[in-house]
Amino acid sequence: MRLLTHNTLRNNSEKAKGKGWPLRITAVEVRVDDADEIGSDPEREIAFVQGILGMLDWPTLVQGASQMGLTTLPQVLTEDMSKDKEFLRALYHVLMNVHLVRGMLTCPDTGREFPVTEGIVDFSMEEEECENVRYYH
């Protein structure tokens, strides 16, 4: 699971009442892909980050990165940073090349845990746990 993905995930259970976010990461195994090994296209990377920067929840990204052992992100994103090509490329690396391979995501409101195995989060719930469940007769 990439940090970009984590930035959008929440607990959709009835108990969370729409507040199950941001999910806390407990990392057991993290993989960081080497950009030199997987190839890179600097202009594409910069354009990608510029396109999604306004959609990211920065405090959630900083928190998630820290929980995965990356403590280099600044606490606050400034306008100057959003124009700095070197910073944008480094941010692309954090968003796309850092993966939670194995661990747990925990809802801050309910304590519900969602296991991550081979980079895939298991959000399976029983039907009665889901919000807005409709029963048809």
Could you provide a short overview of the structure?
The protein is an alpha+beta fold. Helix content is 31%, strand content 18%. Helix 3 crosses helix 5.
What is the element layout, followed by pairings?
Layout (H helix, E strand, L loop, with lengths): L2 H4 L17 E9 L2 H4 L3 H11 L5 H10 L17 H13 E9 L6 E5 L2 E2 L16
Description of the molecule:
The protein has 137 residues and is an alpha+beta fold. Helices cover 31% and strands 18% of the residues. It has a four-stranded antiparallel beta sheet with strand order 1-2-3-4. α3 crosses α5.
Question: Given the structure, what is the number of helices?
Answer: 5
Cα-atom radius of gyration = 17 Å
In the predicted model, the low-confidence regions spanning at least 5 consecutive residues are none
Report mean pLDDT, rounded to a whole number. 90
Q: Which overall shape is indicated by the principal axes computed on the Cα atoms?
A: globular
Q: Could you give the distance between the termini?
A: 38 Å
Query: Which class best fits the helix and strand makeup?
Result: alpha+beta
**Percentage of residues in strands:** 15-25%
Q: Name the helix and strand elements from N-terminus to C-terminus, one letter apiece.
A: HEHHHHEEE
Sheet with most strands? 4 strands, antiparallel
Write out the strand line-up for the largest beta sheet, numbering strands in chain order.
1-2-3-4
What percentage of residues falls in helices of 4 or more residues? Answer: 25-40%
Strand elements, count: 4
